[in-house]
C-alpha cells in the first residue's frame, strides 16, 4: 500500500472534477479524499495499491469532459493518515 497527494491545476473547479475523481477512485479501490483549494486547484489524497494509483494519476492528467488540466503535481505521503475504506468529497 502506498499513498499520494496530487495538486491539479487548470479549469478543475465547477466542472464536476471532484465527483469524477471520487467515482474513479472508488472504481479503483482507493481510499482518501478530494477537495477544492482556495487558489483554484483541486487537492486529491489517495491511498491503495501502486498500480491503482498510477491509473488514477493518468486519469488526473485529463479529468472529466469539461475540465482542462494544465498541471498535476504529486508527492508520496505516509498512508497511515488515509482512510482505506472510503473516498470523500470535502
If you had to describe this structure to a student in words, what would you say it looks like?
The chain has 90 residues and is α+β, with helices and mostly antiparallel strands. The protein contains 2 helices and 5 strands. Strand 2 (31-36) and strand 3 form a beta hairpin. The longest helix is centred in the N-terminal third of the chain and has 11 residues, at 17-27. The protein starts with a strand and ends with a strand.
In short:
This protein has 90 residues and is an alpha+beta fold. It contains two helices and five strands; from the N terminus they run βαββαββ.
User: Gyration radius, to the nearest Å?
Assistant: 12 Å
Mean pLDDT: 93
Between the first and last Cα atoms, what is the distance in angstroms?
A: 23 Å
Output the structural class: alpha+beta
Number of beta strands = 5
Report the principal-axis shape.
globular
Helix-strand pattern: EHEEHEE
Biggest sheet statistics: 5 strands, mixed
User: In which order are the strands of the major sheet placed?
Assistant: 4-1-3-2-5
What portion of residues belong to β-strands? Answer: 35-45%
What's the layout of helices and strands?
Elements (H helix, E strand, L loop, with lengths): L1 E10 L5 H11 L3 E6 L5 E7 L1 H11 L7 E10 L9 E3 L1
Parallel strand pairs: 2-5
Antiparallel strand pairs: 1-3, 1-4, 2-3
List the keywords:
5 strands; 2 helices; 90 residues; 24% helix; single chain; alpha+beta; globular; 5-stranded mixed beta sheet
Amino acid at each position: 500500500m502506498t499513498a499520494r497527494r496530487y495538486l491539479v491545476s487548470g479549469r478543475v473547479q465547477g466542472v464536476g472534477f471532484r465527483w469524477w475523481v471520487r467515482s474513479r477512485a472508488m472504481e479503483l479501490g482507493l481510499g482518501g479524499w478530494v477537495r477544492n483549494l482556495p487558489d483554484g486547484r483541486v487537492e486529491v489524497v489517495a491511498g491503495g495499491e501502486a498500480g491503482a494509483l498510477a491509473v488514477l494519476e493518468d486519469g488526473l492528467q485529463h479529468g472529466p469532459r469539461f475540465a482542462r488540466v494544465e498541471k498535476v503535481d504529486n508527492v508520496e505521503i505516509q498512508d497511515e493518515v488515509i482512510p482505506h475504506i472510503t473516498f470523500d468529497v470535502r
